[in-house]
Amino acid sequence: MSGPMLRLALRSLSHHKVRTVVLALCIALVGVLPTAVDGLLELYRTRLAARATSTPLVVGAPGSRSDLLIHALYFRGDVERMIPRKVAIEAGESGHGVPIPIHLKGSVNGNPLVGTTPDYETFRSIKMIRGHWPRKLAEAAFGSKVAKELGIDVGGSIATDVHKLHDLAGSYPLLLKVTGVLSRTGTPDDDAVFVSLQTSWVVSGEIHGHLRIDPQKDFNLVLENQSNHITANAAVVEAVEVTPENEDSFHPHGDPDALPVTAILIDANDDKGATILRSRFRRDESLQPIDSLVELRELLAVVMRAKAILDANSMLVIVATVLLLGLIVTLDVKVREREVQTLERIGAPRGFVARLLFTEIAIVVCCGGLLSIFLARAAIWFVADGPLLLP
Amino acid sequence: MRGASVSVKELEHRHIVGQHPVRVAHLDIGAGEKVAITGPSGCGKTTLLCCIAGILLPTSGEVTVGEKRIDQLSDSDRRKFRRDNIGLVFQEFELLDHIDVRENAYLPIWLDGREPTDDEEKKLIERSRRCGIEQLLHRKPRALSQGERQRAAVCRALMNSPTLILADEPTGSLDSNSGRAVLDLLFDEADLSGATVVVVTHDSTILDGFDRVVDLVGEAS
């Protein structure tokens, strides 16, 4: 392609601005969906894989393995059953790794409230922009995106969401004190609110605090009075804020080691430790260990099957568009018959006109393609890093 | 530079099988001569011009321009010969609407796959001044009057310094004054370069100034 030919092609395209813009837009719009879907899937795959790679072993209760994966690593969805905290204690005592229990039941303004231990901070190498990881009851560290969305900072406070508004047994929001804000990680941690396990149990009702009941004075609140145990009804006013005065009143009912966790992340010392713990969990029928990467691959395989259908659809649209473009170009040649005839008469070399038309089409396709990539990138940014942040 | 002679012998051209063919028994045009070819509509004036230019290939017969047998050249060679040696002017001007007058004038050079040299740019300025379109070089053809367009077309036809100028009804779309002006311009340029001029026309009022008038009815069978 020579300079003069390129110039002639550009002059023709700029002369027929509307036609050129419409054609480029058509190509861009046809290309943007498959390009954006490909880009988004790749981004998801990378992000999900990075999270799964850093968390190779997860244990939870038997049930859906993919639900457990999504729940434990990405703080989404729920698990049908929970496991007792003592599983984590025993795993820790084995000396093969650090168990990090996760209790995911509550939420703050729709964002997951993650009850865990301080080991989580070390395990994920979390850095705090301000403040510190929660140390006491009702203290919370906010993911960067949640903090920004809620306009909250260290020193502030916010209540957890009420999930069981009409629960007669009583389910109350807990006022959280913001003690830290995490730096941005580009992971689900950005969307989460981290508290201690005890705080999470308070929110889910496993632990509660209330005014001391005197069976003599508060007889209307007492359902059953045994020598060492008083059962009160739901009229007892539960504490919705942890204060120095009521801090000691928070207590579980029953065995503290039996308090539930929804999953346990295992930070194994080495491969051998991971293998020993995995086989130990497998022997226990009440537990289900999962290999995060294997589960993730299976999950992505399902997504890829769905994508194959989308790809086939995109291919059909592209073929239809190419046929339509071919028709438009053919009609365009008819419309430009005089121009073609003039060039031929003046002495245009053999094939010059065909090359000129091809150059024009190539420029339009390139512009459409570039526009398509630009729009796809914008869409990916919008979905991945913009207002629609996904895990 | 001398003009190219033209020789046509026993030319026959048939557009469609079964249709009456165009026939020219014999036509010799000397180098530097200015010849008008006249005749009624449909007698084959434009076909003859296209055969001389190598746009059409005769079914039989010989067409020689200068030393070249046009009818024996390959398609690519005919195109190159046309680009290098022949300046064409058409009734409907045939300027490209999407490029300006200057770029239209450069078309024969661009079709050669090269940019105009400094010398060629100077020649264009000089010629456009003589053609009276120096101020119009950056305008698109649609912004010009009919007469200005034909002068721009003449300017383009002369861009490759042709030895043979072929014009097909160059005054057909112009009023008599503009038509005369364009023809005078063509003759002046031909006088300057020594080029041979062959003009096809059915307008008997513009025949003054030609060295010879060939009536195709008399020539064609």
Keywords:
heterodimer, A: 391 residues, alpha+beta, 10-stranded mixed sheet, two-stranded antiparallel ribbon, 11 helices, 16 strands, 48% helix, B: 221 residues, alpha/beta, Rossmann fold, 4-stranded antiparallel sheet, globular
Indicate the topology.
The complex is a heterodimer of chains A (391) and B (221).
Chain A: H1 3-15, H2 17-54, E1 57-60, H3 65-74, E2 83-84, H4 86-93, E3 97-108, E4 111-116, H5 119-123, E5 128-131, E6 139-142, H6 144-150, E7 157-159, E8 175-182, E9 193-196, H7 197-204, E10 207-208, E11 222-225, E12 230-232, E13 251-252, E14 260-261, E15 263-268, H8 271-283, E16 288-291, H9 292-335, H10 337-346, H11 352-384
Parallel strand pairs in A: 4-9, 6-8
Antiparallel strand pairs in A: 1-15, 1-16, 2-14, 3-4, 3-15, 5-8, 6-9, 7-8, 10-13, 11-12
Chain B: E1 6-13, E2 22-29, E3 34-38, H1 45-53, E4 60-65, E5 68-69, H2 75-85, E6 86-89, H3 101-111, H4 118-131, H5 146-157, E7 164-168, H6 176-193, E8 196-200, E9 212-215, H7 216-219
Parallel strand pairs in B: 3-8, 3-9, 6-7, 7-8
Antiparallel strand pairs in B: 1-2, 1-4, 4-5
Helix pairs in contact in B: 3-5, 4-5, 5-6
Integer average pLDDT of chain B = 87
Can you tell me the overall shape of chain B?
Answer: globular
Gap between N and C termini of chain A: 47 Å
What's the helix-strand series of chain A?
HHEHEHEEHEEHEEEHEEEEEEHEHHH
Number of strands of chain A: 16
Please identify which CATH superfamily of chain B we are dealing with: P-loop containing nucleotide triphosphate hydrolases
Approximately what portion of the residues of chain A adopt beta-strand conformation? 15-25%
How large, in whole angstroms, is the Cα Rg of chain B?
17 Å
Count of discrete domains of chain B: 1
User: Between the first and last Cα atoms of chain B, what is the distance in angstroms?
Assistant: 35 Å
> What sequence of helices (H) and strands (E) makes up the elements of chain B?
EEEHEEHEHHHEHEEH
Largest inter-chain contact set: A-B, 24 and 31 residues
